[in-house]
Design goal:
The chain has about 290 residues and is of the alpha+beta class. About 60% of the residues lie in helices and about 20% in strands. The chain contains nine helices and eight strands. A three-stranded antiparallel beta sheet has the order 3-2-5. It has a three-stranded antiparallel beta sheet with strand order 6-7-8, with helices on one face. α7 crosses α8. The chain is rod-shaped and about 140 Å long.
Length: about 290
């Protein structure tokens, strides 16, 4: 029974509220028309001095958002060029449509692998809808800049250090997409985001430099070992060829003498027959 009474009372109450709102809107419209008429009368009476107040000019890269009695004037933003406003009841705001540059201050970020780094970036953005940028947010530029700082910290905090150092373009693209989606409701278009610098702590820089130097030394040792291995294989193959032909050893011996004699030095070479050495070696083995 109680619920039925409540429903009945609500049904009687809602039409009352609706009628009150309609009456208030009609009264405000009537009052607005009266004020507009009085403003036109004031313009006509003070002619031509009122023209200096009523006509305004905005530049090619600017737009004017007009409010009449606190309400947004239909037709969207005005400009570029000359537009007309009524004194006392019209107010307007200028909006710059040029691309602006915001240098994000260095942000101390803790990366995914628990390394503290300082990151700064540059954000390029512009106003693509002047009406929304004035009506939907108090200060579109300040809000975009604060959001850029927060997005930079959040993006860097979800990535390890090696990705931050090696994938700057990917991170910049992700930040640009995230900022553009968030600022669409504010009439802002984020055109580009660039990461300027990633500063590491001094101790970490020294540790990374020592690690890189050790890695280079290890690679150099491996390369040198591979070269010695290839050289030893080549020498073994050469010894096998020389062992098959005794004359090849004599030719190699003569070639070495020719190389030594071609240089201007004080080296004295005494040729010793290989057969003589072979005789002494066999005699020692027999004994």
């Amino acid at each position: 029974m109680t619920s039925v009474l409540e429903m009945t009372s609500r049904q009687h109450l809602y039409p009352t509220i609706t009628s009150v709102n309609e009456d208030a809107d009609s009264e405000s419209k009537t009052c607005g028309k009266i004020l507009v008429a009085l403003s036109w009368i004031l313009v006509i009476i003070t002619m031509p001095f009122s023209l200096f107040i009523c006509f305004k000019v905005v530049l090619e890269y600017e737009r004017a958002v007009i409010f009449r009695l606190g309400r947004l004037l239909s037709g969207g933003a005005k400009g570029p060029g000359i537009f007309f406003i009524l004194p006392c009841i019209d107010t307007y705001a200028r909006v710059d449509l040029r691309t602006l540059t915001y240098d994000v201050p260095p942000q101390e970020v803790l990366t995914k692998d628990s390394v503290t780094v300082s990151v700064d970036a540059v954000v390029y953005y512009r106003v693509h809808n002047a009406t929304i940028s004035i009506a939907n947010v108090e200060n579109a530029h300040h809000s975009t800049r604060l959001l850029a700082q927060t997005t930079l910290r959040n993006t860097m905090g979800t990535r390890p250090l090696h990705e931050i150092l090696s994938e700057r373009e990917t991170i910049s693209g992700n930040m640009q997409i995230s900022l553009d989606e968030a600022t669409e409701a504010w009439g802002i278009k984020v055109e580009r985001v660039e990461i300027k610098d990633v500063r590491l702590p001094v101790q970490l820089q020294r540790a990374m430099a020592a690690e890189a130097e050790a890695a280079r030394e290890a690679r150099a040792k491996v390369i040198a070992a591979e070269g010695e291995q290839k050289a030893s294989r080549a020498l073994r193959e050469a010894s096998e060829v020389i062992g098959d032909s005794p004359a090849a050893l004599q030719l190699r011996y003569l070639q070495t003498l020719n190389t030594i004699s071609a240089e201007k030095n004080s080296t004295i070479v005494f040729p010793l027959p290989i057969d003589l050495l072979t005789y002494f070696i066999k005699a020692r083995e027999e004994s």
